[in-house]
Amino acid sequence: MCRNRLIVFLIALPLLASCSGMGVKIDVGVMRVQPSGNLALEVGIGGGAPSITSNNDINEDLGIADELDSPYARVELDLGLLYLTGSGFRVKYQGTGQLNAAFGNIPANTPVETDMDLQVYKLALTLDLIDIGPVRISPGLAADVILSDTTVTAVGFAFQEALDGTIPVPMLFLQAEVDLKIVDLVLDVGWLDASYSSFSGEILDVEALVRVQPLGPLQIFVGYRAVSLDITGEQDGDSGRIDLEFKGWVAGLGLHF
User: Fold this and answer.
1) Where are the alpha helices (DSSP H) in 156-250?
2) Out of 37, 68, 116, 193, which residue is the most buried by the measure of CB atoms under 10 Å away?
């Protein structure tokens, strides 16, 4: 049902743009993701962050591949003085490894199967502070929403631990664009180091795109996305940490109206 609604929304966007006069850019492609970093989970230590010795490297210890292909999508809406941007990608992989440190109730040195499913969505609202000729500079606010459904299972045992849930991370945000009609250059930078709700940590999200618009509404794009997450949270008396980096090239096709 949600997928059908999304398809209807994307089909309706050009019609809405023509009726309201707003500008729309839609990009769909593939991101070649290089995931790296650590995950940690300690049970029953409520109120404190997991120790350094509890970290497990997602590539070496949890068996996640160091390069993955992910679907990528981005939508931009020019609302006049306001500019709305949304983008996202998904890292999904199943692998096997051997824990370097305990992960929740699973002891260190245990062979494990890891099922990682992380979705990262960015939504930003900016104000066109400078909009002169082809140059636009727009500060504003944004949020990265991380949806985690990651489980680690001990091979041959009934032990299973999970890092799952939805983590909204607000950010200060700046978008810069140079639109030369045929070539369009865009840079997004979002950052925050703060505590909120039951989570604390730092996030840096940088996204750069080069679009070429050869004919009519068609556009071809290539770019680079880097997201660095260092988030510690507490749930049901257990403490977990996501200290991950996702970076890689993106490319695909799009439309502008």
Assistant:
1) none
2) 116
The pLDDT of residue 162 is above 50: yes
- For 200-254, the pLDDT digits (tens) are 889 999 999 999 999 889 999 999 999 999 988 776 667 778 899 999 999 999 9
φ/ψ (deg, to 5) at 6:
-65, -40
55 residue type, one letter: N
| Cβ-count burial 215-250 (b if 16+ within 10 Å, e if not) | eeeebebebebebbbbbbbbeeebbbbbbbebbbeb
- Tell me the per-residue pLDDT of 68-126, one tens digit each, with 9 for 90 and over: 999 999 999 999 899 999 999 999 999 999 999 999 889 999 999 999 999 999 999 99
- Cβ-Cβ contacts under 8 Å for 70 (sequence gap 6 or more): 30, 31, 32, 33, 89, 90, 91, 92
Per-residue pLDDT, 236: 65
DSSP letters spanning 42-91:
ESS-TTSPPPGGG-EETTTTT---S-EEEEEEEEEEE-SSEEEEEEEEEE
Indicate the burial class of 47 (C-beta count within 10 angstroms; 0-12, 13-18, 19 or more).
exposed
pTM of the model: 0.84
3-state DSSP call for residue 37?
strand
List phi, psi (to 5°) of 144: -95, 130
Q: What is residue 107's DSSP assignment?
A: P
